[in-house]
Amino acid sequence: QVQLVESGGGLVQAGGSLSLSCAASARIFSIPVMGWYRQAPGKQRELVATITSGGITNYADSVKGRFAISRDNAKNMVYLQMNSLKPEDTAVYYCNGKSAYYSSWGQGTQVTVSS
User: Three-class SS string for the chain?
Assistant: First the structure.
C-alpha cells in the first residue's frame, strides 16, 4: 500500500481559493486512480475528483468548473486547486490512491470556507 499525506487546508472566505497537496510514499505512476474526497460534519464521505494514471479526470457535479485535480508522477504528488470556494465546500478533504488490490487514505486536511 501507499501512505498519503495531505496539506494545504485552512480557512478562506467565500469566493477565495485554496490549493491542496497530497504527498505519496511510493511511486504513484503505478497507481491507477488518485482522488480527492471530502466529508462534512454529519455527512458521508463523498467524491470530489479523481484522476487516472493516464490523466483522465472526473469531478463531482458540485465542483465542476471550480476545482481542478492534477498529478505529478515524477514528484509522487497529487494536487487539488479549489477556486470560487463556497461555504458548502467546508469539509475534511482526503487524498485516496486506489488500485485493484488496495485503497489507501490520508489523514485528511480541514478546509473551512466562511460566508
Answer: CCCEEEECCEEEECCCCEEEEEEECCCHHHCCEEEEEEECCCCCCEEEEEEECCCCEEECCCCCCCEEEEEECCCCEEEEEECCCCHHHCEEEEEEEECCCCEEECCCEEEEEEC
Residue 92 · residue 38 · CB < 8 Å: yes
* Cell 504513484, located at residue: 28
pLDDT, tens digit, 9 for 90 and up, residues 77-94: 999 999 999 999 999 999
| pLDDT tens per residue, range 19-48 | 999 999 988 888 999 999 999 999 999 999
Question: What is the biggest distance separating any 2 CA atoms in the chain, rounded to whole angstroms?
Answer: 41
